[in-house]
Amino acid sequence: MTAFALPVPPMPSIAISGSAERFAVRRIFCVGRNYAAHAREFGNDERDPPFFFTKPADAVVDSGTVIPYPPLTANLHHEIELVVAIGRPGLRIARERALDHVWGYAVGIDLTRRDLQDEAKKTARPWDWSKAFDRSAPCGPLVPAQKSGHPTKGRIWLAVNGAVKQDADLAELIWPIADIVSICSRAVELQPGDLIFTGTPAGVGAVKPGETMAGGVDGIGTVEVTIGQPQS
């Protein structure tokens, strides 16, 4: 039995809808600019190929969590997303077989320190500090694909304190789920436990301490988190 110098950290995981079991999270990949309107609102070309960035696995937190307002930012943004959970390994997965590797789906929020991201873009530096921070990937319960099917359309939305800010349809995805899984697997060998956040629609905006975000995807579920005060 392997001995470790320090206590082994808890395994990051997300809830599974209707089950006492949890889904262990291995890695988190995120797709940038995968809705045309969102690409345009940031001055980008929606015809660009998809690109990916990452978050640490322990960035996931459950729906219902109070998330302290993160440090180093004065412009924390919400980005509602459909999340794909991988259940089978695969490298260079063919598009027509990509959905066979999907275990299930959830609703997530890609929290973004927008001011840090804007600075990173200006200086051509990595996005890590703007995306890969503590508790930056709240995620609702995972629904097995055998129950939900593989969604190709349906409302995706997010509200802040009850006011709807993002409201679109999964049919507006530039790169559908099968494409995303296939393209991601060209760069890395996907493994069970990997999550892919599939991109956010237009309407992203700032949230402040005390505000609650609630969002959902038709046929998949919802996620809700509150932004708390900064940690002292």
TrEMBL record:
It comes from the Bacteria. The keyword Metal-binding applies. This is Fumarylacetoacetate hydrolase family protein. Pfam families: FAA_hydrolase. Keywords: Hydrolase, Metal-binding. Residues 28-227 form the Fumarylacetoacetase-like C-terminal domain. It comes from Mesorhizobium intechi. SUPFAM superfamilies: FAH. InterPro entries: Fumarylacetoacetase-like_C, Fumarylacetoacetase_C_sf. The keyword Hydrolase applies. One of its GO terms (molecular function) is acetylpyruvate hydrolase activity.
